[in-house]
TrEMBL record:
The keyword Cytoplasm does not apply. PROSITE patterns: RIBOSOMAL_S19E. GO terms for cellular component: cytosolic small ribosomal subunit. The gene is RPS19_2. This is 40S ribosomal protein S19. InterPro entries: Ribosomal_eS19 (IPR001266), Ribosomal_eS19_CS (IPR018277), WH-like_DNA-bd_sf (IPR036388), WH_DNA-bd_sf (IPR036390). SUPFAM superfamilies: Winged helix' DNA-binding domain.
């Protein structure tokens, strides 16, 4: 008997969903990628740029999923979320925020393809079209795993 409930992003493993949604964003070709993506580090705590050439799509998928689950997220929260531990040699490590420019460009790119919109209380929220797309991808991931 078929399931009587619909599958949402909350029901899917985050890694599987992000990988599938990043592949969808790359395949669709709508997401505008800045020219400097292959040159930058993702934060001051990093020594090198990302090895994955599609890291911007993965970051966009991660941001879309995060805002789907928690509306009203802004650039500062995303900087904190994607930050990391700074290696300070023999001194104790500290948490360092990630790049704000990358967070802004990801949000702007997702707004251009109508996945996100500005929230009246600050930050961003998912649009109706964006929620439908994310739920459709989640359902396809769920069917592939079943």
């Amino acid at each position: 008997m078929a399931a009587l409930y619909s599958v949402t992003v909350q029901d899917i493993n985050a890694h599987d969903f992000n990988r599938a949604y990043a592949a969808y964003l790359k395949r669709s070709g709508k997401l505008e990628i800045p020219k400097w993506v292959d040159l930058v580090k993702t934060g001051t705590s990093k020594e090198l740029a990302p090895y994955d050439p599609d890291w911007f799509y993965v970051r966009a998928a991660s941001v879309a999923r995060h805002i789907y689950l928690r509306r009203g997220v802004g650039v500062g929260a995303l900087k904190k979320l994607h930050g990391g531990t700074c290696n300070r040699g023999s001194r104790p490590s500290h948490h360092v925020k990630s790049s704000g420019s990358i967070a802004r460009k990801v949000l702007q790119a997702l707004e251009k393809i109508n996945v996100l919109e500005a929230d009246e209380n600050g930050g961003r929220k998912i649009t109706v079209d964006g929620q439908r797309d994310l739920d459709r991808i989640a359902a396809s991931v769920h069917q592939a795993r079943a």
